[in-house]
Amino acid sequence: MGRLIVVSNRVATPTETKGSAGGLAVGVFGALKDAGGVWFGWSGDVVSETVANAGPALEQDGAVTFATVGLTRKDYDQYYRGFSNATLWPVFHYRNDLARYEREEYAGYRRVNAWLAHKLIKLLEPDDVIWIHDYHLIPFAEALRSEGVTNRIGFFLHIPFPAPQILLNIPPHEELVKSLSCYDLLGFQTATDQQAFHDYVTRHARGTVSNGNQVEAFGRKLRTGVYRIGVFPDEIADQAKRYESRQHVLDLKQSLEGRKLIMSVDRLDYSKGLVERFRSFELLLERSPEWRGNVTLVQIAPPTRSDVATYQKIRQDLEYEAGRINGRYSGLDYTPIRYLNQQYDRWKLMSLFRESQIGFVTPLHDGMNLVAKEYVAAQNPDDPGVLVLSIFAGAAAELSGALLVNPHDAIGMSEALQQALQMPLAERQRRHEINMAALRKNDLGVWRDSFLRDLRSVPLRNTGEGGGHK
Ligand code: ADQ
Prior knowledge:
The chain is α/β, with parallel strands linked by helices and about 475 residues long. It is built from 17 helices and 16 strands. It has helices at about 25-35, 50-55, 75-90, 105-120, 140-145, 165, 175-180, 190-205, 235-240, 245-255, 275-285, 310-330, 345-355, 370-380, 410-420, 425-440, 445-455; strands spanning about 5-10, 35-45, 55-60, 65-70, 130-135, 150-155, 185-190, 210, 215, 220-225, 260-265, 295-300, 335-340, 360, 385-390, 405. Mean pLDDT is about 95; it is low at about 460-470. Pfam families: Glyco_transf_20.
C-alpha cells in the first residue's frame, strides 16, 4: 500500500492530532499513521516572499511528515480572504448576496494552488495516494496533473455543493468544475451535494453520469461518492462523563440555579443561523411566559475570519440582538442569553453539552455540522438532552431522533424548543438511542476508511501502468 498524502488549507500541528477525541485532525492523522505519509498545507502564517519561497518547513512524527508553508500578504488576501472566503464560501452556502467576485482574487487563488502543488511535488513518491481537502484547493489536482503527476488524487468537499443555478453566480463556474474533474474521486457530505454536482455536469458541462457515480466531463473520467463525516461517539461520551464534575461545569450549574439550559456552539459565521436562532429563543420567551426566568441559552461563538467584512457585520448583528433580547427579558438575577466569543477546550464543551437539556443547532446551510453529532454523543443515556437541528445541516439526513426545524421559521423553532423542554424521559431516551446508533454506524473511521478504500480502488486514469510522476 502506498503512502498517504493529505493536503488541506491548514495543517494540524502534531500536538493537535493527539488527545482531542474525535476531531477531524485525529481522524485524518490516524490514516496517515497507518500508511505513513505527509500532511501538507499552509502554516497559518503570513510571511515575507523570501520565507514563503524557502519552505516547506518539515516536522517529523513517526512515519508522518508535517510540511507547511507560509503565505505572502498578497497570496493570503487573494487566495484565502478573497476568492476562498468572500466568493466560494458564501456562494456554496447559498449567500450570493454576501459574495463578491474579483478577477484578481480568482487569479491569485489559482496561482496559490499551482504554487502549493509545485511545492508538494518534491515530496511525492510514485505510489502515493493524494487526498485534497475542501474548497480552498479545488484547482490543486489540475495543477499537479499539469506538472505530470499521475498518482491517484481524491478530493473531499466539507461544505455543501450548491445547486447549479446558484453555482452559475460565480463567473468562472465552468473552470471550477473542470478543475474538479481532474480528480479521480470526489467525495461529498450528502447525496444532495453529489446530485447537485451531477446536475451541473449533465446540464451545463455536456457531461454524463452513469451507474449513479461514474462521471465523464471535460474529456475526463472520475467517480463521485457520499462520505458523511462523523465523530468517534464512544470516545466523546467517555470524555463528557469524565469531566462532568469539573469546576467549570459545577460553576455553570450553580449559576443556573435550577434553570433549564440550551447550548449552542458554532464558529461565528453567517451560515450558522445565529441571528435567527436568537430571535426564535426570544419568541419562546414572548409566547410562553412560563419560561421567562426559567431557561438560559448559552451561545459560544468564537470569531473567525474577522478580517472579512461580512464577518464583522454578523458579529455586530449578533451583539445587537443579544443586547436587545437581554434588555427585554433580563431580571436582576437572570440573563436569558449568555453570549461568549471564545474558543473552548473540547473536553470542556463536551461536558457542558452533557449538562444541557437542549442542543440548539440551526445553520441556514452546513455541509455536515459536527457540533450536532458531538452534542448527541456527549449526552448521559440515562437522562439525555434533546437535539433541535436544522433541516439544512448535512447531519439532519442521519440524526432522525432530532427535532428537525426550518431555521427560517422562527415560530416553528420556538415551538420545537417548547416541545424539547417538556419532552418526557422515555421519548428523550428513545430519540437518543436512534441518534447514537446512527453515529456508531457511521463514525469518523468509517468516513475516512471508505473514502480511502474507494480512492485506492479507482481505475488508474492514464495508461494503466501504475501511478507515479514524471
Ligand atoms: P465548521 O463550519 O467549522 O466545519 P462544524 O462541523 O460544526 O463546523 O465543526 C466545528 C468543529 O469545531 C467542531 O468539532 C466543534 O466542536 C469545534 N468548535 C466549534 N466552536 C468551538 C468553540 N467555541 N470552541 C472550541 N471548539 C469549537 C466545516 C463544515 C461543516 C463540516 C466540517 C467537517 O462547515 O459542515 O461538518 O467542516 O467536515
